[in-house]
Amino acid sequence: MTTDLEIAAGVQVPATALAREATELIRDTTDELIYHHSRRVYFFGSLQGRGRDLSFDPELLYLGAMFHDVGLNEEFHGSGRRFEVDSAYEAKRFLQAHGVPEDSIRRVWTAIALHTTPGVPEFMEPEVALVTAGVEYDVLGIGYEDLSAEDREAIVALHPRPDFKRRILQAFTDGVRPKPRTTFGNVKADVLEHFVPGFERGDFVRTILDSRWAE
After folding, report:
1. What are the C-alpha distances in Å from 181 to residues 82, 137, 164, 177, 208?
2. Which of 23, 31, 37, 97 has the greatest number of C-beta atoms within 10 Å?
3. Nearest alpha-carbon partner for 134 in 66, 199, 77
4. Domains contained in the chain, CATH given
5. Full-prediction pTM beyond 0.85?
């Protein structure tokens, strides 16, 4: 049965046992900031997919959206891996435990791992493209006018975003500060440069020039 908590702006959350278990897991293991953000990513990504006339698997998109930021949790602060990769592997473990086919797991893993790598996901499978589209819409406002004000308001009414800009930046800072080297070549270097005194971002040119190669 569909309830008001499972549909917004004409988009329905997949009514499957796998989606329900994923929802419960993310609600139990993340804070309300990440939970509501992850749900909005699904809704916004779905609407972007509809607007682009993309055929996608709603369940796979939902799973990618729900797991995409779990790698920011404190338990992963010492992993030494990019938080996106930690998130992707948590999703993979969950899906493997539920007997999901490997190709579906690959799509979800890729969608999560690449969601902060602009310029690539949009050319991949729809589920990969739309996790990034949902993230970019909710966090960066990319394509803001692509969706109607009514649809935006319906989704935000269901999953509010009070003080979201400041709070998500704080979550990024807290999740990435313990492993600053993982920001080399990606957008999270901008976050640490703004909010962590003494942080020095990696320099691609200097890395080449200072390598062990003589020429």
Report:
1. 9, 27, 26, 9, 16
2. 37
3. 66
4. 7-178 (1.10.3210)
5. yes
